């Protein structure tokens, strides 16, 4: 037995090429080999053999190490020690370095080093990784992966199977695969054959493996690229494309792909057509008018059996560019119920802005694109306008219900249809309000509706922000169910948001716009700010103040009003922000504590307390005011009555000796302490001659006297002569009115006096202002005579 082991070790010494010695005194060998097959080996042995028989080394002092780790060993004979090592389960390819050392007093001394490699035979790749392609049935080339494991030398040998055996093929390699082409003529092959069988042998230091492949020629044909591709006979929605290809006589079906790409990047499509034989033309339909397209065409041969890497068998694409003809707009702009705003409202008129989604450029379908919007009232009145932007404001519409019809047009004509929305008079009880707009890597929008409002859905409108509370472009609508009162989008651009409520009876509210945008990283819930104002004896108003960003965090509000004696006056909660809260049914002259608490969506709360006193009832003040007013009124009435009586008593009448003598009106100014003016009007006799029955004569200043501005002191105007004549029942009526200087007409405050000549022919009027006097003379024989004196 020892002789057999010695013989084996001797053979290992000769064949172990990877071993080497230090000082040539020992070697490291492995059993069964220095290359271990991990698939069928569970243990191996490492030997340290002294090679120099005259060596002074003592076999008992030898040890085996794996790197610096000591391995348990035993003495086999006088020159050899051995270590038994188990192979680790599921081990991967690796290598180990073993050393043989002599234990000396000065420390271990190395005698030999050896490397042992652990690996597996070459792996066989799946059959579908062996790919062969026949280029338009002219030649074949094949490729397969060049996978090398464990850094072991690996060889690949490809052969074709012939009647006489295998014919070896020359292959080329790159970093990932090996290639063979039938044009190099290195092995037996014919394109006329229906199929070809290949054998591949893969070998490394551990073992060798082989695999067979059978290739059917018609199933691996890749057609050539379509040639001379053109587009003709194009209309607004169709185009006919033609091409040339050399015919392939195959017992297979052909599959064509027509891939359209528009210049707008939308409206792209890919269509597949399967035909029993090759074709050279195709009609492309359902195109967008007035659009530039690029059409790609490619073809493949359908195999009888499923093949891997099917995309490899498509031909190269042929391309052509064409443009469809213009057409009137195919589609009308998209609208949404509730997408309107009442901008201004009077007693019977309103201004209304309506919004719709903009039509994309690729759907303009021609030049000169625009929008036509029509408001139709319930009475049938129509108001049609043109617009370039997706919004329009109707001015001075009568308040009421309208149907809004939105269509589009271009230079060819108007769209075939229109979309319709409705607007309704404002109803605050149905109007939703945006609660908050939070922005953090997108937007989170929430809103609420008034109490007892039961909408069926919501219309949310948003657009790129250009100005507050409006949308000019990029308008988009989202319809949300009634149970959802929030909206989330990942868009990062500055946006405007508005929301409207839709009700089951086809009624809708107008849009409610955002007030501010909040960045949660820079804001948080803070104590509420408010003013208590309009304090009366039985009520007060709590008005919330502060910034919109602060109010955005209010998910709930609570107000508690309690008198200092503990009596509760109000305790009410709101599920949204309320700007004004009226507290009534309070007691007069009472101190109240007002506590406003706000909550955010996570239940966190902040509050603020203030103290206010209601006003007194004020009944005694009202009585005193009324008494003072009554006293003042009675005093005023008595003063006026006394002055009127004094004016009557101061009237003086001078009777002339004869009414036939010419007299002059004289005006005398009194020197009374109150600076009043006295006007003395004297009436001369009435002439006998005939005069008009009703004549009015106005006397003005002589031309020689220049016009002067109205003086601040009273002015005395001397009356002109009035021709009169006495007679049996003749009398004179004189009425005077006060008027301010420069007024065109009297102010209506007049005095009336009758003069019966010859007993009474003059009257004195006391006044501190300018007066106008109208003199009416009633003559018994000739009628009335009128004269105005200023």
UniProtKB/TrEMBL annotation:
Keywords, ordered alphabetically: Membrane, Receptor, Repeat, Signal, Transmembrane, Transmembrane helix
SUPFAM superfamilies (alphabetical): Fibronectin type III
Keyword Ubl conjugation found: no
Domain Fibronectin type-III: 223-304, 333-415, 524-605
Signal sequence coordinates: 1-19
CDD domains associated with the record: FN3
Keyword hit for Transport: no
Listed SMART domains: FN3
Parts forming coiled coils: none
Membrane-spanning residues: 619-642
Protein known as: Cytokine receptor
Organism: Culex pipiens (House mosquito)
């Amino acid at each position: 037995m020892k002789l057999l082991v010695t013989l084996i070790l001797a053979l290992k010494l000769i064949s172990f090429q990877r071993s080497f010695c230090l000082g040539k005194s020992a070697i490291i060998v492995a059993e069964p080999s220095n290359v271990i097959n991990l698939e069928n080996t569970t243990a191996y042995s490492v030997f340290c053999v002294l090679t120099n028989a005259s060596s002074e080394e003592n076999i008992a002092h030898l040890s085996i190490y794996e790197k610096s780790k000591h391995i348990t060993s035993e003495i086999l004979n006088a020159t050899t020690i051995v270590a038994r090592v188990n192979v680790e389960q599921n081990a991967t390819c690796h290598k180990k370095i073993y050393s043989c050392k002599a234990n000396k007093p000065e420390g271990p001394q190395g005698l030999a080093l050896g490397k042992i490699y652990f690996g597996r035979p070459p792996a066989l790749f799946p059959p579908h990784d062996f790919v062969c392609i026949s280029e338009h049935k002219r030649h074949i080339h094949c490729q397969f992966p060049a996978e090398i494991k464990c850094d072991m030398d690996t060889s690949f040998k490809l052969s074709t199977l012939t009647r006489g055996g295998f014919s070896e093929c020359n292959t080329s390699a790159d970093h990932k695969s090996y290639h063979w082409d039938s044009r190099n003529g290195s092995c037996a092959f014919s394109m006329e054959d229906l199929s070809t069988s290949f054998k591949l042998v893969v070998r490394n230091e551990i073992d060798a493996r082989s695999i067979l492949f059978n290739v059917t020629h018609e199933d691996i044909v890749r057609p050539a690229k379509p040639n001379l591709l053109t587009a003709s006979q194009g209309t607004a929605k169709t185009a006919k494309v033609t091409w040339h290809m050399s015919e392939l006589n195959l017992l297979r079906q052909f599959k064509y792909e027509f891939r359209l790409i528009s210049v707008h990047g939308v409206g792209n499509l890919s269509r597949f057509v399967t035909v029993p034989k090759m074709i050279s033309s195709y009609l492309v339909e359902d195109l967008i008018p007035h659009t530039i397209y690029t059409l790609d065409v490619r073809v493949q041969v359908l195999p009888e059996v499923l093949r891997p890497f099917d995309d490899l068998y498509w031909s190269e694409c042929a391309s052509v560019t064409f443009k469809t003809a213009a057409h009137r707009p195919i589609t009308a702009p998209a609208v949404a119920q509730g997408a309107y705003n009442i901008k201004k409202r009077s007693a019977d008129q309103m201004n209304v802005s309506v919004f719709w989604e903009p039509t994309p450029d690729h759907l303009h379908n021609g030049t000169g694109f625009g929008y036509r919007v029509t408001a139709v009232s319930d009475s049938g009145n129509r108001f049609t306008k043109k617009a370039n932007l997706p919004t329009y404001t109707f001015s001075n519409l009568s308040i009421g219900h309208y149907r809004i019809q939105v269509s589009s047009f271009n230079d060819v004509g108007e769209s075939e249809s229109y979309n319709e929305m409705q607007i309704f008079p404002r109803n605050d009880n149905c109007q939703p309000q945006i609660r908050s707009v939070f922005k953090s890597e997108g937007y989170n929008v929430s809103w609420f509706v008034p109490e007892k409002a039961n909408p069926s859905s919501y219309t949310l409108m948003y657009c790129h922000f250009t100005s507050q509370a409006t949308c000019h472009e990029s308008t988009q609508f989202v319809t949300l169910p009634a149970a959802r009162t929030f909206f989330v989008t990942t868009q990062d651009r500055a946006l405007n948001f508005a929301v409207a409520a839709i009700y089951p009876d086809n009624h809708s509210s107008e849009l409610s716009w955002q007030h501010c945008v909040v960045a949660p990283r820079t804001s948080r819930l803070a104590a509420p700010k408010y003013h208590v104002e309009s304090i009366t004896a039985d009520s007060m108003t709590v008005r919330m103040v502060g910034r919109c960003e602060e109010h955005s965090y209010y998910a709930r509000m609570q107000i508690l009003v309690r008198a200092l004696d503990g009596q509760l006056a109000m305790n009410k909660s709101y599920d949204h922000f309320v700007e004004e809260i009226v507290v009534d049914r309070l007691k007069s002259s009472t101190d109240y504590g007002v506590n406003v608490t706000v909550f955010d969506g996570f239940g966190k709360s902040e509050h603020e307390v203030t103290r206010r006193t209601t006003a007194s009832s004020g009944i005694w003040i009202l009585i005193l005011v009324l008494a003072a007013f009554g006293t003042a009124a009675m005093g005023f009435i008595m003063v006026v009555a006394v002055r009127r009586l004094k004016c009557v008593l101061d009237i003086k009448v001078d009777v002339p000796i004869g009414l036939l003598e010419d007299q002059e009106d004289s005006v005398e100014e009194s020197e009374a302490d109150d600076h009043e003016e006295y006007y003395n009007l004297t009436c001369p006799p009435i002439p006998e001659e005939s005069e008009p029955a009703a004549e009015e004569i106005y006397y003005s200043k002589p031309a020689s006297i220049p016009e002067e501005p109205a003086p601040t002191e009273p002015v005395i105007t001397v009356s002109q002569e009035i021709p009169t004549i006495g007679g049996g029942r003749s009398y004179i009526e004189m009425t005077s009115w006060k008027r301010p200087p420069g007024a065109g007409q009297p102010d209506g405050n007049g005095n009336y006096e009758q003069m019966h000549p010859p007993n009474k022919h003059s009257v004195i009027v006391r006044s501190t202002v300018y007066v106008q006097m109208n003199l009416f003379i009633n003559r018994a024989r000739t009628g009335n005579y009128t004269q105005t004196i200023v």
